[in-house]
Amino acid sequence: MIADRSQKNFLAAGFFLVIVTAALYWPITHHPFIVFDDPDYVTGNPAANTGLSWANFVWAFNGAHAGNWHPLTWLSHQLDCTLFGLDAGKHHLVNLLLHVTNSLLVLIFLRSATGSLWRSALVAALFAWHPLHVESVAWASERKDTLSTFFWLLTLLAYVKRDACRVMRDEPPAASRITHHASLYYFAALFFFALGLLSKPMVVTLPFVLLLLDLWPLGRIQNEKSKIKKTIALLVEKIPFFALALVGCATTYFSQTAAMSSISFAERLGNAVLAYARYVVKFFWPDDLAIVYAHAKYTPWLLAIGTFALLLLWTVPLLWNWRRRPWLAVGWLWFLGTLVPTIGLVQVGAQSMADRYTYIPSIGFFIVIVWGAAEIFSRRPRGNYFGAAIAGLALLGCVVLTAKQITYWRDSITLFRHALEVTPDNYVAANSLGKAYELAGNNAGALACYRAAVESEPHFPVSQFNFAMMLLETGDDTSGFEHLQIAAKLQPENPDIPFNLGVYFTRHADWAGSAAQFRETLRLNPENATAKTALEKLRRTHAELH
Known about the structure:
single chain; 2 domains; elongated; 26 helices; mainly alpha; Serine Threonine Protein Phosphatase 5, Tetratricopeptide repeat
């Protein structure tokens, strides 16, 4: 009877989780693509928007694209385009379905590992409804988040199931069958981890999380006598996982070498410390969320040092007390460790942090909060009722704030206006808002935004290029040419810049300069048919250019 009631409660919790999550995020199925990254991943990428084909399949595996090697993510975009074309709502629907599935997998994984239904359900609900996760779900380009997390959670679930088989193995009479099942779950976990790496390299930290699970909740190190021996055995069984992670790290490094920032390591370290603190604050007070947080021009070192001291004061007692309250140490190390690939120690891009980076780390953080709070409330009279009331209010607050955050994603102009409102002097957001205005036919608004972006950060090549093109479009050739030259110095590998310089020189009858720029364009992008045609035309009409 008790088992039946527990199963019914589990099914009810899962059903409620799915229904509320789907209803909460349903508006994104009516949202369009946005101007930031979506052109690179879907709308402006022929290798994705033409759908599945053998050529596109080979392209997905052949080298890094958009700064990452994640072929499975590319294949998912290709499949979407095959099924739905460029219907943005359907692309977002797939993200929504993955997020709903991931939320359910969090519930299943934690309940299977810990045996605690309601704590697991609360962690899953926080994961499903927290505003920090809107970016990962509402943004088509962040398919890599939802997809890689799907395989991450399947890996953890297979690992937990395998541990259950290991426990049952010693119980006759089905020892051989159970042992076989344990091996199957082990290889299933390894397989899912490989698929996760093919979806997003951020999952390279998963082998460390498996070791954390061995401490708690699986408790595979049970006494001092067997501690060293068992630890060695646990490390040995993780060797294939670490080998895959090492391959993932190497692939990511070589994929992102060209996009790595020139920001000094000291500045990156200071930003990483502050980013950890900002993430913690945003978990508790998810206000002023933006699609992009531009990297600060100067690091407030006193604040960074103080923040590091606070993080240390929090971390050391949790680790010291891991035997009595292992869930606190495991959850906190999960949060700290899984953020390492994206915390900015290796800086790629202009962002100082990003909401989407919390998608996997948040699970560990929520474990700390939920298990820690449950222990506190359980010690007090009627504490469970009080704790349930606090949890209900927290979830209600998450739903309200998430619903509000989703409204900002209804179009690019709204999204980047909001980003500028909550993060002033954000040159990345200003540039993207300019592009949104430009596509909407508002050249005056675009020019103002591009100018603001350039004034805020003169070394950002994208805004320099966009500003130059808008100046040329509006007839200011002199200033446009100057900024196009600046963009060329900042981003010499971008074939669009020499191509437009070639067009500029052609317009001003500088045939030699035009020919030189078209040649440079073809060196960078031999497939540019327009540049090839323009160069051939120049050679036919000006014999001295041969």
